[in-house]
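This is your field. Please look over both lines of this record.
***
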Amino acid sequence: MGKFRSTRRPPINKKHDLNVRVNDEIDARSVRVVDEDGQIIGIMSAQEALETAISRGLDLIEIAPKAEPPVCKVIDLGKYRYEQQKREKLQKKHQHQQHLKEIRFKAATDTHDFDFKTRHAREFLLDGDKVKASVIFRGREIVHSALGIEMLKRFVHELAEVSKVDQEIKMEGSTCSVILSPDKERKPAPATK
């Protein structure tokens, strides 16, 4: 048995959450009409285009209002909404959300710990995340804040090939910090084992 399509007129002003004009909402004099498969039907008046859509049991959706003449597609509104949601979901999937990762040092951090945390910071930067490095001073350690500043300068120098400084080294109370962001233009040197 063949595929049967209803020739009943679709509801004129269907409720939709799309930012497009549908059916009788289209007010252009003439429109370029495209069918479901993307084949151009031709240029006709908006009324003729709507009648073409109704005869197929589908909706007329304005997909390119700024084109000359505007482009309208003969398609089911539900199917169009589904395709739009699918396209948006795919775009969100391919976007990378940039996070701020924090690395904390103490004023008396050992060389091994410094190298270990620097390697982690490098991984974060290569993944596209920002890194905030902080040196925390406790009690009287604040007297030796120059040591913390030197440690952060060394940290910035170690990661210079994969990052750029977003916020310069600065003191905030008993904490000294710097923020680095990934530098897309700089390519890291191959890791040596």
The longest helix spans residues 77-93. The chain is about 30% helix and 30% strand. The radius of gyration is 30 Å.
